[in-house]
Specification:
The protein is an all-beta fold. The chain has one domain: 3-layer Sandwich (Rieske Iron-sulfur Protein), CATH 2.102.10. It has no helices and nine strands. It has strands spanning about 5-10, 15-25, 25-35, 40-45, 55-60, 60-65, 70-75, 90-95, 100.
Length: about 100
């Protein structure tokens, strides 16, 4: 059974931006908002060199790492080919204008 926790209002996350959530168990989690107001959450650490994904550029349903331009799929955390790797993805959703996360 999932344990959803309210993180913030959707409007607290900029469109095409992110917000970092601290988790004792999982470290920093970046919660992203797309141009369509979808929300996704991944570990805030690029699998390549540990760059802060929360500071990357969001485009479509991907984020580009600010350090070396690796592209990460926001829904799965998978790195886009030809690069290889994965950032842990977490479940996120919106409900009544609020953002919820489960880890």
């Amino acid at each position: 059974m999932s344990d959803w926790k309210k993180i913030c209002a959707l409007t607290d996350i900029p469109v095409l931006g992110s917000r970092v959530v601290k988790s004792e168990k999982h470290g920093d989690i970046a919660v992203f908002r797309t141009s369509d107001d979808e929300v996704f959450a991944v570990h805030d650490k690029c699998p390549h060199k540990g760059g802060p994904l929360s500071q990357g550029i969001v485009h479509g349903k991907q984020v580009t790492c600010p350090l070396h331009s690796w592209k990460i799929e926001l829904d799965s955390g998978n790195v886009v080919a030809p690069d290889v790797g994965c950032a842990k993805a977490f479940q996120a959703k919106t409900e009544n204008g609020d953002v919820f996360l489960t880890v």
